[in-house]
Amino acid sequence: MPHTLNRSRELQQRAEKIFPGGVDSPVRAFRAVGGDPPFVVRAEGAYLYDADGNHYIDYFGSWGPMILGHAAPFVVEAIQQAAARSSSYGASTPAEADLAELVQAAVPSMQKMRFVSSGTEATMTAIRLARAFTGRKFFIKFEGCYHGHADALLVKAGSGVATFGIPGSAGVPEETVQHTLALPYNDIAAVEAAFAAHPDQIACILLEPVVGNMGTVLPQPGHLQALRKITAENGAVLIFDEVMTGFRVALGGAQQLYGITPDLTTLGKIIGGGLPVGAFGGRAEIMDLLAPLGPVYQAGTLSGNPLAMAAGIATLQHLHQHQQSLYPALEATSAAVVDGVAAAAQAVGVPLTTSRVGAMFTWFFTPNAVTDWDSAATSDTAAFGRFHRAMLQQGIWLPPSQYEAAFLSTAHGAKEVQATIAAAKIALQAVTAG
After folding, report:
1. Which helix (H) or strand (E) holds 363?
2. What is the pLDDT of residues 100-150, one digit of tens each?
3. Angle CA(202)–CA(208)–CA(212) in degrees, nearest 5?
4. pLDDT (average), residues 290-307
5. Could you tell me the pTM of the whole model?
6. Residue 158 pLDDT greater than 50, yes or no
7. Quick one: residue 29, left, alpha or beta (phi over 0 = left, psi -120 to 50 = alpha)?
8. 149-156 contacts: CB < 8 A, separation 24 or more?
């Protein structure tokens, strides 16, 4: 059981004097679950270590990228070797194409691509490309899906926006979002109605093929296929935001898992091996609209950063080489922990709905099936908060929001699964106690 978090509390108080809310990203503040956020000083394998000497089994994995666990030796070595040659050049390097070829081998729909420094950059540029390619202004996103903090995307977004109950964001003019159409996820009729209402005006549909930013929500059977058909028939671009799902739900992401080929794909997280990176790519005829070949401008001083490229190459090489054993093992471990906690909840009468694909999952504190934002929002967030705090006290660190997906890594094994289920049996008592 963790020690008293005195040092972490002191660090939080110091941070609050410098950073708004004491954090550089809102969900880290634990406002949705209560309690003091531990301050991490190191991580290794499946574990996080805080400033008070506590260790925790990590179930958010830096929000997805740590699929191989923390500080995998060959990834660390690759970063160290790259850093010794300089942390940045501002010029092209062979490593950029080396990583791009590994990405393309797994995601062949990305005929051409470009690296950026974040998923937000990747997504906002993909929309810009789609608008240029089609000559149209409107685009469709889905309620509860978060695609970064670009102004036009902060409409009924998930992630921290959902966590804090913010419908959009202050500082975003109405004019900026007037061409954003936010529709219910898994609702094809709503998509068809939008195209009927805006004929020849919709540039693209942007979605997380498996949602991770209102908790894990899977596409209903036929949903992705229907979106592919609608966009093709209407001359619109289909964009898959695979920042979370890329290389995680399968080597080739959700598009491999579900057999759908989007026009454009955005990636992040895993392809940088834990360092800041993003990518977007797809059909060559669309990508060739980018400067210097075409009229769509996009640039980034640190795009293709050599440290991120090195970490990404080491990570993706490992995933390619071990995919036959690695992904089934992730699936088995994920199923064991998700089902084990669900069984513990059922035993004590706590309503729980599980949603999982590969090593990405959520325990929703609701008896209802979760297929969209409205059903996700029926979750008892107070119960989740009690569960989160109790699990943290037992040494299990879950995402600090009901509306964030959980992740595990290849470093998680039977020992961690057993410890998590045992902790959940204790933590669920806190849920029932109210």
Report:
1. strand 360-364
2. 999 999 999 999 999 999 999 999 999 999 999 999 999 999 998 888 766
3. 145
4. 95
5. 0.93
6. no
7. alpha
8. 149/120, 150/120, 150/123, 150/124, 151/176, 151/177, 152/124, 152/127, 152/176, 152/177, 152/179, 152/180, 153/120, 153/123, 153/124, 153/180, 155/180, 155/182, 156/182, 156/373
Q: Is the Cα dihedral 218, 222, 226, 228 positive or negative? A: positive
pLDDT band at 167 (very low <50, low <70, confident <90, very high): very low
Q: What is the mean pLDDT of residues 46-58?
A: 97
Q: What is the CA radius of gyration of the chain?
A: 21
Contact 319, 326 (CB under 8 A): yes
Write out the catalytic residue numbers.
Answer: 146, 241, 269
Enclosing H/E stretch for 206? strand 202-207
Strands laid side by side in the 40-44 sheet: 40-44, 47-50, 55-58, 396-397
Q: Which DSSP letter does residue 220 get? A: P
User: What's the whole-number average pLDDT of the chain?
Assistant: 92
Give the H/E segment covering residue 94: helix 94-106
- Both tokens of residue 425? 């049996």
Residues in CB range of 125: below 8 A, 6 or more apart: 114, 116, 280, 296, 298
How many CA atoms are closer than 13 Å to the CA of 124, on its beta-carbon side?
18
Distance CA 211, CA 147 (A): 10
Residue 12 clears pLDDT 60, i.e. is over it: yes
Provide the β-strand partners of residue 44. 47
20 and 372 Cβ atoms separated by less than 8 Å = no
* Virtual torsion, Cα 303, 305, 309, 315, nearest 10 deg: -100
d(CA 349, CA 24): 38
Read off the tokens for 92.
């092209």
Query: What is the number of residues in the chain?
Result: 434
User: How far apart, in whole angstroms, are the C-alpha atoms of residue 281 and residue 76?
Assistant: 27
Nearest residue to 162 (alpha-carbon basis) of 143, 177, 186: 143
CA distances from 348 to 338, 356, 425 (A): 16, 22, 9
**Domains contained in the chain, CATH given:** 6-63+323-433 (3.90.1150.10), 73-321 (3.40.640.10)
Check whether 36 has a pLDDT greater than 90: no
Band of the pLDDT at 166, cuts 50, 70, 90? Answer: very low
